[in-house]
Predict the 3D structure of the following.
Amino acid sequence: MHTTPALGNVIVSRHPLIEHKLSIARDRTTTTKLFKELVEEIAMLMAYEAMSDLSLETVDVNTPLESTRGRRVSGKKLTLVPVLRAGLGMVEGVLRLVPSARVGHIGMYRDHDTLEPVDYYFKVPGDVAERNLFVLDPMLATGGSAVAAVSSLKRAGATRIRFLCIVAAPAGIERVQRAHADVPIYAAALDRELNAQGYILPGLGDAGDRIFGTR
Ligand code: PRP
Ligand code: URA
């Protein structure tokens, strides 16, 4: 394991490949194309760690030579929930590992003045109470969006929720832990602080704009 159980329910990745890719993603000269690829790859590597304790079911398998028993993850019970927009950038990477996972969506953006989240869309599978949910959002800044996203999933009946982000700020971690102590936070990096506009320092800038080439 290359993870460090840092603060309570926070798992900060220490995998060299994640650190390497994140350094390139942070670089302001990294192109939109490369940035998007890096976010996908980091998400895939993080999911590998965040899914290390998934439960397995036993299955019968016929090899070319004989019958045996194998074990398989019950993929249909996994659900990815990207927080739009930036969370979309993590979906393909995780789906490469668990192609049969379902994908819900939560639409939310931060009001530039108040920094509070404004939600505009919510769609998850109906049987959400029986599923393992992985909320995907590259940035955990003030934590307002993450808290609101997890709250809306809990209102829909979800009980098993993990939050995967690429860069987390201390304020965001504290806010999520205060509101949702049961939700583990997986982060590729724990950064220093927020600036006056609520951006993470050193961070990587506006993740949505860098993934989609807007601004
Ligand atoms: C970003 C990011 C998070 C949120 C984090 O989204 O993807 O959802 O900000 O900030 P918070 O922790 O202070 O709530 P943004 O509002 O920029 O929307 P976008 O993904 O559509 O660009
Ligand atoms: N959202 C981003 O995209 N980047 C930050 O640094 C903070 C919030």
Observations:
- Residues 86, 139, 141, 198-200, 203, 206-208 surround uracil (ligand 2) (CB under 6 Å).
- The chain has one domain: 10-57+73-212.
- Residues 6 and 12 are 7 Å apart (CA to CA).
